[in-house]
Amino acid sequence: MGIVEEAHNVRIVGVEGNNNNNSNNNQIVLLAHGFGTDQSVWKHLVPHLIEEYRVILYDNMGAGTTNPDYYDFERYSTLQGFVYDLLAILEELQVQSCIFVGHSLSAMVGVIASISHPHLFSKLILLSASPRFLNDTDYYGGFHQEDLTQLFDGIRSNYKAWCSGFAPLVVGGDMDSVAVQEFSRTLFNMRPDIALSLAQTIFQFDMREFLSLVTVPCHIIQSTKDLAVPVVVAEYMQQKLGGKSIVEVMPTEGHLPQLSSPDIVIPVLLNHIRHNISS
């Protein structure tokens, strides 16, 4: 295992294939998680993929499963640090092309990576994606600046208490639900100063100007009700993306529907993984 693979806990499961040669580009599905989670967020999807695909999973730097000593606050002050990590993983594994499935933060990481390296991605499947969380003139991202200030202050003052309040709001359930408990666990596993750094990077980025540069087909998948990403954001992305794109709004609630509503979300994801956008 290479240095990059080890640092990101890269795991490869599923059908055997000559990964170095990769004659069938669509044989590889790469799953990338969002803020506050780790690769375990895909646990309901992976069993449905492994008989058809080679599946690559990894943890973003800063996740509770990674070594906090490897977290470079300057590198990850922008999305580009995560883009470099993704490209390094693909290079180390000698992946020539993959179907990229990215959730939240990682959805936008895949979008940016595809601009400079479109050949590495046959398509992007973007779950709960947003190019900007902060409202702006003629743009509704879902958050005012004072909302974000309160969020950052909450992380600073009492991280455990903040996790307990944030998890049910984001997942869209009560504290007794399995999905909320799972998200609470992975969120609380993060070191508080790293969680604050990541939250500031994510909630204050603005990727809108890059959308028109994307040429890889994009499948945008969104919950009907998501505290973090309003449905209008998915529609905005479809209008602004440079290449082919499609939006599917699911009858689900919450920002992590792959955890909270797997019975609905998994068939949707499988459909988009298996089928391309019709021309």
Structural commentary:
It holds the Pfam family Abhydrolase_6. Belongs to the AB hydrolase superfamily. This is AB hydrolase-1 domain-containing protein. This protein has a 7-stranded mixed beta sheet with strand order 1-3-2-4-5-6-7, sandwiched between helices. The protein has a single domain, classed as 3-Layer(aba) Sandwich (Rossmann fold), CATH 3.40.50.1820. About 3% of the residues have low confidence. It is globular and about 45 Å long. The chain contains 11 helices and 7 strands. It has 279 residues and is an alpha/beta fold.
> Would you list the SSEs in sequence order as H and E?
HEEHEHEHEHHHHEHEHH
In total, how many domains does the architecture comprise? Answer: 1
CATH topology: Rossmann fold
CATH architecture, please? 3-Layer(aba) Sandwich
CATH class: Alpha Beta
Family: Belongs to the AB hydrolase superfamily.
Domain AB hydrolase-1: 29-266
GO molecular function, one term: hydrolase activity
Organism: Arachis hypogaea (Peanut)
